[in-house]
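FW: tagging you since you asked about this chain on Friday. Here's the raw sequence from the shared folder, copied in full. Didn't touch anything.
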Amino acid sequence: MTQAAVVAQYITTAAFVALGVAIAYRWYRQPGRAQGMLAVAIILLGLVAAAGRLQDPNNPNDLIALFSTIGFLASGYFVLRFRHELIPLSRRALWAADGLLAVSVAVSIAEVVWLRGGAGAGGWTEIALLELIGAWAIFTGEPIVRFWLASNRLPAVQRARMRFLGGGFAVLIGILFIAVLGGSAFQSPTAVLVTQLVALTVVPAIYVSFAPPAILRRIWRMSEENEVRAALQDLLIFSPSRQVLAERAVYWAVRLMGATAGFVTSADGKLLAATGMDEASAEALMAQHSDTPDGRVISAPLHLSDGQGTLAIVAGRFTPVFGTDEIAQLKAYANSVSAGLARAAVTERMAELESGKTQFLNLASHELRGPVTVIRGYLSMLESGMLGQLNERGRKAAAVMSSKVTEMNELIEEMMEAARLEDGALSLRLSECDLRDVARSAADGAATLLDGSHGIELDLPDRRVRVNVDEDRTRTIIANLLSNAIKYSPAGGTVTCQVRSSAGAARVAIIDEGLGIAPEHMSVLFTRFGRVITPETEHLKGTGLGLFLGRQLARLQGGDITVLSTPGRGSTFTLHLPTVAVAAVSANGAASETAASERAGATTD
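HL: got it, structure written out here
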């Protein structure tokens, strides 16, 4: 035998011994019955390889030969027992395996004690070797096939690890059968060298099935990256509530980890969602408050705003052995779930607050409207003298009360509009009108708010500005903008109401010379109940609904409200609305001219 072949044999033996030591260490660090069975099988292979190097080919030792043969058979048997721990065999199958092991041990003893070196034993020796290798092939081949089929339903990393393990043992089976059936042809130095090099490739294949390096795990996971991204997107973007998010989170956890079931609990220990099991089973597992000793239930903490919840999975049959990578991923996945649940909790809380505000607006506006209507009626009767003549002081008091009741009525209308808007019950009565007339009417209404220091100036174009809007609500928007301009100009000044039209868009700009608005307060302006509170404005009354309603109503009509402001110099609020389409105007004009011509013709006739 050449020196290269001998070196290859020693290298292969050393590799199998090192593999056995590495597996023994991992078994020590991660004890488990299934892991133990596989560890014993690989350790025995390493010992058999080492014993083979101790054997003298010219003067073989029967004890070493017997140990090698029985250890070899036992290694295959423990692979089958490993399979039994993950996928249980029937009782009959176990009995058959035990019987085959006993027969094979007997054959190995006979081969070593009686057949080896005996006269005329050549044929019987080959039969005995075929029986021993056949038994080992059955012990290892059946698990290889079963694991390969089962791996099709597992996550990518688990699938690859199981297939590397199965592939390693399949190569050994092939080498053994070829060596026995090939006879003397495989005793040549070249054949031995090739066989040893092929056997050497089995060592890294089996090792990565136990401890795959990070780069291999990343490569194996590449096929699942899209699924992981879809899972996180589903959780963090498209889950509308905590309940839905928890259900999706546990579904994806079970799917990505190769588990059989899972559940999510809140910080107070309540079950949020479960999949693959009923509620009673989930609660029974929750009562354990920790991972089960056999590694069947694996949990990761959910760091929630109100405490610590739990994301737990019931591991699949292969997860404790081949799913260590997925178990590590579970903790990172749980962090994403925590963020999603926190977002959903905030969203639900905001929805509750918004719903509460809407209910309050509905209740308050409806409950106040009746009494205010009665008060307005009696004030009207007082002012008209129907309840008797008032003196001068009484008439002044009635006028003040009437003004305040009008303010109260406007507030109630704003609240009712906001409630209708939130409920989606707000309907518009669109009609074609001249925006100049709407602005003029709004200015007349706001004139009652003027004092000696304020004035309203109308800047209207000569031509009509035709818009298709809800006239009453558009008038309310403009009136509210004028009212704000007057209110927030405590030093007086002129408020300009400017109407313009160009390029298919109409604009009503309300320009004041008041306090102005700082840039950092702009984001508050158009929010519901949003008010800019400064030392100069804190004494001014308001609900913060006017601008919110104005913008929403403008947008419902295809427009918007924008603002430009300089602190200390005033603000310009602009209502943008689409004008009536030129084509529609032309069509209407043509139709009118046709109708007029027909009427003229009929008259002539």
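FW: The CA atoms of residues 442 and 479 lie 5 Å apart.
HL: agreed, and Confidence is low (pLDDT under 50) at residues 289-294, 582-605.
FW: great, closing this out.
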